[in-house]
Amino acid sequence: MIRVNIICEGPTEELFVNKLLYPYFILKSIHVTPRNLGTGNKYGRLRYNIIQWMKQDPTAWVTTLIDLYGMNRHFPGYNDHKHKPGPDKVKAVEAAVKVDIEKAGMDTRRFIPYFQLHEFESLLFSEPGILEDWLSLDHKIQPDNFQKIRDGFDTPEDINDNPQTAPSKRILAIVPSYNKVTDGVLIAEDIGLSKIRQACPHFNAWMEQLEVLALYKGAIY
């Protein structure tokens, strides 16, 4: 059994791993274990947890599930690439973080950095109709509001990370009582990993990186 430890930004991502990723990957003989970081946009804390978990469990793989939204200059590569388009920026930061962990003396062959473009809620725009159906159960929502947002971008992951227009802020502007832990993960479950992967290429690429680990049966490559 391949083991993958996932450092998550908060309780939403932790629950997402337990509810969606765990049952998916266990069928592929990959056991994923989340750890709630609690402050995903503070690089010092993230770096410490990555290094400590790699030391504590050296035969497991380590990856991250942290939002790009809310990052700052303390993240390696962020300042140099912050004006690039989202997909280019996130890949550059991921690469820079891996280099930084390697400079700390760690063997990074078992480390797969992943940052969500731009935050967890972008995944929910993979199926705007399901997002609307769920949140309209207790709230009156103008039809197709979420679809109109989604139509303005090539992919849900391109929905920008401005403090007023990030995916979660757009949802809250329509449904102020939206709760990312209770509502968000239930909506993601209803959408399903298959549709999320089809709509979100960066997320899908991460999933593919994890899936391929089963081919190596625990060996370093």
Outline the structure in words.
The protein is of the alpha/beta class and 221 residues long. It folds into 2 domains: 2-117 and 200-216, 3-Layer(aba) Sandwich (Rossmann fold), CATH 3.40.50; 120-198, no CATH class. Helices cover 48% and strands 11% of the residues. It contains 10 helices and 5 strands; from the N terminus they run E-H-E-H-E-H-H-E-E-H-H-H-H-H-H. It has helices spanning 11-26, 43-56, 78-81, 86-103, 128-135, 145-151, 167-174, 180-191, 193-199, 201-211; strands at residues 2-8, 30-36, 61-67, 111-112, 115-116. Strands 1, 2, 3, 4 and 5 form a 5-stranded parallel sheet that branches. Helix 1 (11-26) links the parallel strand 1 (2-8) and strand 2. Helix 5 (128-135) packs antiparallel against helix 6 (145-151), helix 5 (128-135) packs across helix 8 (180-191) and helix 9 crosses helix 10. The model has no long low-confidence stretch (mean pLDDT 93).
The rounded Rg comes to 17 Å
What count of helical segments does DSSP give? 10
> What is CATH's topology name of the largest domain?
Rossmann fold
Biggest sheet details: 5 strands, parallel
Q: Estimate percent helicity.
A: 40-55%
The chain-level mean pLDDT equals: 93
- Can you name the CATH architecture of the largest domain? 3-Layer(aba) Sandwich
CATH class of the largest domain, named Alpha Beta
Kindly name the structural category. Answer: alpha/beta
Strand content: 5-15%
How many separate domains make up the residues? 2
Number of separate strands: 5
